[in-house]
């Protein structure tokens, strides 16, 4: 299975490159929309506040797609666990490590969020699905066109039952899994279509919040982004770096230097998926055996999302604080448990992180969904740090699991990372054909 994913990722490279060019334009559009929205909010506050329905409409579209995204990713995620576990010690060890590390990252996000209290003083308006209609008939008409959402927690429970039932069916359940995989492609295509409306949603949401609170909104968003980047750096250098040093004796900074070209690729595309084939090749070159790389890397791309985990909990705390309704400890723990389950398998698709965040808020505090529009505006600014952290976490995980299963040549690893045996780009070209 791992080889197939590698091959398909490689063979689809030209097709993916085209898609990346288009999403790059989306990225630029969102940045332009955020800047324009902030300017309008500062210069013409009343006009900015009047643009709030644009942000509300986008949040409603995200809400609409939450349940299908959660259902498909959980069912297929449980299927992936079954497949990964069948490969024995490596798969089981990898899954235990991924669950433990992503839980730690989620908890780290909560700790930092509780220390800095991002979003204080914004006083965003709570989202109330039952509120009376506005006086603007045109706005009401367009909002009524967007279907309501399905409840998230029952969807999660049904998805868990379906996933375990299909796992128990073995081979006879595979056609159903393939069918759900096809449905997931449709759901993610819809998600991508919704994300193309993100610039409009971000423009309306940022204009409204800046119009209402002025420079305070810009300051709060900058604090969240700065704290998120700093938390990701701390996680990579101190958490991952310490584990790498203790288990393998290798230096995290030398590993970061070795993966520099991949980081540039991820930074330009805001997605760690673009570097998947190169990570497989580089981890094999650094001395980890093919079977360990083939199992750990593709599984990690779905289950080891350290950057996304930090983003989910910090963003949820930002929204709750910005709306003047901070979560108590019990709600934070409940959110943590939900995110541990819901974040699995939702990697590599633009907007999946937003859908997971919205799902967590809707499941615990539906009134907090009104603050999602602001997160949409700054989500793109945080996507690079998220993708780089996810990627680094998977590179470190591959070396750790290689060491624990005695499937890594540490002498080769030290020689490669010190620059004595550089990676041959020609090898990468061969693996692509």
UniProtKB/TrEMBL annotation:
<dbReference type="GO" id="GO:0015138">
    <property type="term" value="F:fumarate transmembrane transporter activity"/>
</dbReference>
<protein>
    <submittedName>
        <fullName>C4-dicarboxylate transporter DctA</fullName>
    </submittedName>
</protein>
<feature type="transmembrane region" description="Helical">
    <location>
        <begin position="94"/>
        <end position="116"/>
    </location>
</feature>
<dbReference type="InterPro" id="IPR001991">
    <property type="entry name" value="Na-dicarboxylate_symporter"/>
</dbReference>
<feature type="transmembrane region" description="Helical">
    <location>
        <begin position="25"/>
        <end position="45"/>
    </location>
</feature>
<keyword id="KW-1003">Cell membrane</keyword>
<dbReference type="GO" id="GO:0015366">
    <property type="term" value="F:malate:proton symporter activity"/>
</dbReference>
<dbReference type="GO" id="GO:0005886">
    <property type="term" value="C:plasma membrane"/>
</dbReference>
<feature type="transmembrane region" description="Helical">
    <location>
        <begin position="141"/>
        <end position="166"/>
    </location>
</feature>
<dbReference type="GO" id="GO:0070778">
    <property type="term" value="P:L-aspartate transmembrane transport"/>
</dbReference>
<feature type="transmembrane region" description="Helical">
    <location>
        <begin position="215"/>
        <end position="240"/>
    </location>
</feature>
<keyword id="KW-0812">Transmembrane</keyword>
<dbReference type="InterPro" id="IPR036458">
    <property type="entry name" value="Na:dicarbo_symporter_sf"/>
</dbReference>
<feature type="transmembrane region" description="Helical">
    <location>
        <begin position="186"/>
        <end position="209"/>
    </location>
</feature>
<feature type="transmembrane region" description="Helical">
    <location>
        <begin position="57"/>
        <end position="82"/>
    </location>
</feature>
<keyword id="KW-0769">Symport</keyword>
<keyword id="KW-0472">Membrane</keyword>
<feature type="transmembrane region" description="Helical">
    <location>
        <begin position="333"/>
        <end position="359"/>
    </location>
</feature>
<dbReference type="Pfam" id="PF00375">
    <property type="entry name" value="SDF"/>
</dbReference>
<keyword id="KW-0813">Transport</keyword>
<dbReference type="GO" id="GO:0015141">
    <property type="term" value="F:succinate transmembrane transporter activity"/>
</dbReference>
<dbReference type="InterPro" id="IPR018107">
    <property type="entry name" value="Na-dicarboxylate_symporter_CS"/>
</dbReference>
<keyword id="KW-1133">Transmembrane helix</keyword>
<feature type="transmembrane region" description="Helical">
    <location>
        <begin position="309"/>
        <end position="327"/>
    </location>
</feature>
